[in-house]
Here is the input.
Amino acid sequence: MSELLKVPTMAEFMAQGKQPEVLFWVGCSGSFDDRAKKITKAFVKLLNKANVEFAVLGTEESCTGDPAKRSGNEFLFQMQAVTNIEVMNAYEIKKIVTACPHCFNTIKNEYPELGGDYEVLHHTQFLKSLLDDGRLTIEGGKFKGKRITFHDPCYLGRANNVYEAPRDLIKKLEAELIEMRKCKKNGLCCGAGGAQMFKEPEKGDKDVNIERTEQALDTKPDIIAAGCPFCNTMMTDGVKAKEKESDIKVMDVAELIANADDI
Amino acid sequence: MTYLPNIIFAIVLFFGIGYFVRNVRKLVRNINLGQEKHVRDNKGQRWKNMALIALGQSKMVRRPIAGLLHIIVYLGFIIINIEVLEIIIDGLLGTHRIFSGIGSLYGVLIGSFEILALLVLGAVGLFWIRRNIIRLKRFVMPEMKGWPKNDANIILYFEVVLMCLFLIMNATDNAFQVSGNGNIVSQYITPLFVGLSESSVHLIERSAWWLHIIGILIFLNYLYYSKHLHILLAFPNTYYGSLNPKGQFDNLESVTNEVKMMMDPNVDPFAAPAAGSTEVPAKFGASDVQDLNWLQLLNAYTCTECGRCTSECPANQTGKKLSPRKIMMDTRDRLEEVGKNIDANNGEFKDDGKQLLDDFITREELWACTSCNACVEACPVSIDPLSIIMDMRRYLVMEKSAAPVELNNMMTNIENNGAPWPYNQMDRLNWKNE
Here is the structure.
């Protein structure tokens, strides 16, 4: 299937003297994490299907600095930010889409002050606009009637008030969207934010992802939908810890749409 | 002699308000110990936020029971204070119920005050039960032992006493009862005093009147020592609250300057500071209250310890030590300590060998935060505990190199490979062909 993927780089566009419609910011997780790479590919398939002229930075992309900043290392964050901004400004990037809410938040909110002003979209927002413009069509397909609950990523939801785009996409699958007790503004964190992903949790009586997974399982879902590679990891681990991985899948919204009619 | 009560009243009022003003000045002084932060933009939105969140209680009602009860007490507090205006004028001029001249409208006003007073009594009773009988989890957490617990109950007792005095004052006011204009609730209290001589009833009325106004002045002065300051500070706090998306953390300007210098090939790395330059290099992050900005300190004084932040905190829910409410309480306690230190040392802070970090807030608490913003979202008065946690992490990492080992590894990876994991940046597009 990989030969079907068209993933041009900014450098290639530049060489042809062209400008893509949008830059796909893949992010570290989407580039290196085995699970998240599948999300990246699913999203690229959709971009290809909708004939979106996009490009990636490839080897010119570097960490946005989000985990460094949330750890308190403002130096490292700003070094990363300034470097990335230099690259993107050199390519005259205007519009960015990313499947990682952490990259999304950082580039959208924290880069402008450092000289990086772009229109930044989360991939669920971008996919929604493709559907609205008729560039991409989906039918319920194999998720029709399935019970799907959506876990709000903190850096998409509370941090940036994006609650509806991922939900609208799930509804388009003709699936039954069921909300957890704690959702949207009151959504519970998966436990990965603030650089917790990269360290052991402090002493307590439970891991945050287990608590959140229990809330998700309370809705008796067939699928737990996520919109963030880190949430995806945490929820997948939670489902495994509850020994439910054979019944319940944790999937990114982009994967749901890409898999709906097996593209 | 006939002017004696007026004079005593004026003196009581003068000292009551005077002491309050003195404490307000101390409060302002302490808040100004914080660093500069500019929040004068977008006034329209700020007024709107204040009107909706503080005046309109929009975030209180997200928890309907507490929200409704709170609105009753809040309305009671604001509206019944119109009565205080009458009491003050009466006290100074020696008049009696000076507003009663406005006729039936007076009855409507006092009548609604009486109903509100009764509702407040009910609401305060339920609040007391929630705290002391039902013992809701957020009211009995570790940081709520001792003074914070007593403080909460004292406030409730104050309100009960003040409302009772108001109703008794009306019930024993013979002329007021005879007029039948507005004694909706107090007429049912009047029978309790049947059988007492007219002069005793009058004495009770006068005592209730005096105790009511003295009680209000004591309560006013209690505020500074109590979590109850929120009744005043909720307004400026919601006005100055952040207008940015919650995910946007501030970029440290001092760091930006350094980074710019590092990236600029024309900067001489060995240049000596300009002659005569007395500029002290900025400290990165916060280890004590003076390193925080004034808005964070205002946040600390505004916190009324309701614990909604803590009950929404994922770390706290899963048994970690972090409690966003405790972050705010610790900040205020330390700020008060610093303020007292300054008072005791003729206006200058003398190092007391203590600081906010470690002596009040432990590193274990700081590193348990997922920066999810649940606490910020939950606060009914726009307090931001997360910004304090972040500033203290910044101090730990940039001034002390004291991040947890795993985070240091992650940061080394970013520095070397441009990713938090040890993968080569040159492999970033390999997924395409896998």
In short: The radius of gyration of chain B is 28 Å. Chain B touches chain A through 69 residues (CB under 8 Å). Residues 64-93 of chain B form the longest helix (30 residues). The CA atoms of residues 107 and 180 of chain B lie 8 Å apart.
